[in-house]
Amino acid sequence: MNLDPFLMLDGLLVYFAHIAVNFAFVMLCLCAVVICALTYWTRQVRPTHPDDEGEDVGLSGFRWDEDDEP
């Protein structure tokens, strides 16, 4: 049996590199699933018609007070 330390080190590096690449791929897929789920959820929660909104919190109806005008 050949117990060359460099050969053993090379084998370990290849083994751990294989595990690291698989782990990174799984994490990437998990992030993609989370992003897709959040996108789907926000599309379900967000109203599709302006009449469905409760209170308008935007600045569309904002008016300066006469004393506060720039």
Average of the residue pLDDT scores? 79
Low-confidence stretches: none
Morphology call:
elongated
- What's the number of helices? 1
Helical residues, percent: 55-70%
DSSP, total strands: 0
Judged by helices, strands and strand pairing, the structural class is mainly alpha
Compute the CA-based radius of gyration. 28 Å
Q: How would a textbook summarize the main sheet?
A: none
Roughly what fraction of the amino acids lie in strands? under 5%
Order of helices and strands: H
Cα distance spanning the termini: 86 Å
Walk me through what this model shows.
The protein is mainly α and 70 residues long. It has a domain at 5-47. Helix content is 59%, strand content 0%. The protein is built from 1 helix and no strands. It has one helix at 5-45. The model has no long low-confidence stretch (mean pLDDT 79).
Q: What is the structure about, briefly put?
A:
The protein is an all-alpha fold and 70 residues long.
Itemize the secondary structure elements and their pairings.
Blueprint: H1 5-45
From the structure above, extract its key features.
mainly alpha, 70 residues
